[in-house]
Amino acid sequence: MSLLRTTRQLLAELTVPPDEQAALCQVIRRRGALADAEAVLDAFLAAPEPRAWLLPIVRKLGDLGTSRRMFEACVVGDALRDGVPSEVLRCLGQCGYVPAEPVLWRYATAPTSDHYVVQDACLGLLDLPCAELGPIIAKALSAHEGKNLFPEFLPVLATKTRNPLWLHRLIRWGRDHASTDCNGGILLGIALFGDRPAFEAVLWDPRWEADASATGSRTWAYAGARALHIEMRDLHATFRARPDAHALRILTALLSCWLDPPALDLSCAPPPAEDALSLHRMLFRWSTPHRDDSLRGLAYDVIPDRHHWIHNELAELDRLVLRQATHDLELAELLEH
Predict the structure, then answer these.
(1) Which residues of 93-127 are buried (b: 16+ CB within 10 A; e: fewer)?
(2) Which of 218, 157, 141, 151 is nearest to 192 (CA)?
(3) Residue 272 phi, psi (nearest 5)
(4) DSSP code of 30?
(5) Residue 335 in 3-state DSSP?
(6) From start to end of the chain, where are the E strands?
(7) What is the per-residue pLDDT across 277-312, written as a single tens digit (0 to 9) for each?
(8) Which residues pair with 80 in a beta bridge?
């Protein structure tokens, strides 16, 4: 199979700036195939450290053969080769390469692993069976349970213990002890148990600060919502039923995440069902010419201060959702012809 034109362009311009990297990767991930993943993997292996930004393409389009080749090139014994970035760990897991499981677990729990290494290892393990790791994961979680700060993404593996009691242990941990700077893994870990009411209770509880952007909590709250197939229409309905400032911040934060789904890149968090045009109609259109009862109008009812930052953010989201709708309509037209 031939490569996408965008893949050929990317391979010819591997020194493109970060904002262009994201654009090229997004198109290839959406439209590419295995051949694109193989070609991109070749480019990555030629210079792993500066080209980690290519790995989302391999994660999305690669297969077991791709991951086997990556494992053989990047891992020696139970460790990554010198100069190989930790993003390889996540890639191996998300491609389903089971022989990498012990390597990922070692990095997930090694005292020398920094925040991002632990994150890559734990998110990779989500897509592996971890059949022999259940008791070991439970022991590792128990060692950190109740602490304020801990390896943030270790709790995403709580379901791998096969012990449903960890759902309530995570909730207590996050509610009563964990710093909101360190609760992203707990938020996603709770969602992965599949108990929607339990997750929604956490999501809308101000103590969790699930709307926070600086800490990254909103990203993982959104990932949890996607894992449970909670759509924007569900979030919007909850806000309308309880229109307060915190609920408005949650809805606004998760709408921001809706516009940037590639930032999640998790197989457990599938793409949203709503299209941009339907979403724009639901959130930003008036139902009557006599009163602005759109999300922006309701926001002024909740926060009357017209200089509050949230009104500017909602205006920008209004514009961005409509722009996405325009892009999607144009793309559909092109594909039809």
Answers:
(1) bbbebeebbebbbebbbeeebeeebbbbbbbbbbb
(2) 157
(3) -65, 155
(4) H
(5) helix
(6) 75-76, 79-80
(7) 999 999 999 998 899 999 999 999 999 999 999 999
(8) 75
